[in-house]
Design goal:
Arginase, Chain A
Amino acid sequence: MEKLLTVMNFSHVYEKEKFFLDEEYRWIDCTKVRGTNGYCDKTAFHILQDKTKSLSPEGIHFIDSGNYHYVSELWINKIEEDFTLVVFDHHSDMTRPSFGNILSCGSWIMDEVDKNKYIKRVVIIGLSEEQKETIPSKYLDKVVCISDNDFIQLNKEDIYRFIDDKYPVYISIDKDVLSEDVVKTSWDQGKMNFDLLKRILHSIILKFDIIGIDVCGETEPNNIESIRNNDKINTSLLNFLLYEN
């Protein structure tokens, strides 16, 4: 995996963090793009596509809070080979919006499974049992769910069984998969501790070719204490992804 770092600033939260400052990074200012918070209208999506058009899906992309998790589509849609999508998230992100056919942080995985011919399998790790039950049965031949009850007994051999080694992997991490004891995000959260997240990531990165990784799950931009804690977790996660795994 290329060790390129991109920071996409939507909510101004990254202006209050320092985790990326010691690295070479590309800063993408998205603060003036309307129609992006939680839902993304077509005009906004085209603007975001334009902002990222010269960039490859390779590397590590920080994409702000979970409200912008749909931004993963920008990077995934650049991939032009068969691949597996591995998502760490406390939510399935496979729920249609209640109004209109609009891209949202809660529906982007479903959109990708429907439209992206290169995705061979989606593995969602850390979602709640309730979220697991909401996934329509027609998707379960392509979507594997490891709930936050399942991963307690998870080992790397289980991970290897779920991911086909014929294909490279793109990883998307929403920090709401982590316990509130670790970090606080703007969504309800799961049970995973940080060491377990790193162990699972290590087992995947060790065995499979990684195309790229994105990270979301920042807190609200006015919550200074939580921003500082997120900054620490982002620093540790970035160092792990760049240098330690």
